[in-house]
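Hi Q.,

Before the meeting this afternoon, I wanted you to have the guanosine-5'-diphosphate prediction in hand. No need to reply - just skim if you have a minute. The sequence and ligand are here:
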Amino acid sequence: TLSDRLTSVFSSLRGKGRLSDADIDATAREIRIALLEADVALPVVKEFVAHIKERARGAEVSQALNPAQQVVKIVNEELIEILGGETRRLRLAKTPPTVIMLAGLQGAGKTTLAGKLARWLREQGHAPLLVAADLQRPNAVQQLSVLAERAQVGVYAPSPGNGEGDPVQVARDSIEYARHKQHDIVIIDTAGRLGIDADMMRQAADIRDAVSPDEVLFVVDAMIGQDAVTTAQAFMDGVGFDGVVLTKLDGDARGGAALSVRQITGRPIMFASTGEKLEDFDAFHPDRMAGRILDMGDILTLIEQAQRTFDEQETARMAGKLASGEDFTFEDFLEQMMMVRRMGPITNLLGMLPGMGQMREQLNQIDEKDLDRVAAMIRSMTPAERQNPKIIDGSRRARIARGSGVTVTEVNSLVTRFFDAQKMMKQMRNGMGIPGMPGGKN
Ligand code: GDP
Ligand code: MG
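Predicted structure with the ligand bound:
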């Protein structure tokens, strides 16, 4: 497995200080094989690996990780980035109903997905309507009606299907019906074929033109591997789509199709389907998919641990700095905040220091959303201001507020909070000293 192979690369590299070209090449080779084994399309693999090598060459030497681990970390980060970084949400129409159209091959899982998506949206307070516009496949209408009932949502199925009726007309009429019945989201299930087929594409394009969907979702079976690329390309050309849904991720497919489809069409993967039951469905998580494609959970965990240990060393360094009597600056404040965020509950190390408990209280009072704003404010300060916050006067505060998109009041409150923290640090130092720390009394 990749884990084994990389482990042996690691052991030969252990102890080396920096990323040499040979290290990068050796790791890149293993990554390349892993991606191909995960069914990522060759052109995508080539482009990706070239990009990784370039980034690895420019990477700073890490103190926390050995070179191979560092490359893997970069690969993982890049995969997450390419797989979507930020997960895109459904775009809702300004004037309801929002129209979502599903497209994909027969057997991809469209009808099942329609039910899952409807249930998911209903749980979020929407009133979805499922529309049976697959009039081809025997019992498709019936299948959708059963799903609608299970999902406890409305269904629009005026035609018996089984080859009868006009799917374009059904789709068009369903919008009026939804408006009348106050459904705010319409999900249109369409017919697929076993392979790419001009008739199918034309029908899907006609439905698209008839209802002008807010989102066309391309539904693709993760198990079809390399074929996903040609299929995605054909649907992109024939119908066009805004987002991708990967199905059958409960199977043993490594999910390389996700990466290929994302790269080749430039469309985000929005949802993942992981089983036959209605609940087997979730928004797509790029980090989980990256781990799956690389198939090296253990190594990623190891890397995380190494990084964590390194953070602890940083914490110790910070504590040492405080004990040595240097002034506590905004740089330190930001660094501590980021550390608290990364580590969740702060390490024992900080807990052991008198006064640090209080400090942590202070930092914990800043909630996640605030953290971003505080970080933005500190980043809008000049280095001189961070080192010597006393110089931050009214006009500087106004500039910082403008630069970070917050109000001056927020900057004022941050500065006040900072001076409190600094005072606390001083008291701590001048008081009993810090037991067990270099420079402190025991
Ligand atoms: P459609 O032709 O695109 O509408 O596909 P269907 O929704 O009818 O699904 C085809 C088959 O795949 C059905 O037997 C579904 O139960 C099954 N299926 C759909 N999604 C998933 C999934 O995420 N995991 C598994 N294991 N099976 C699925
Ligand atoms: Mg179907």
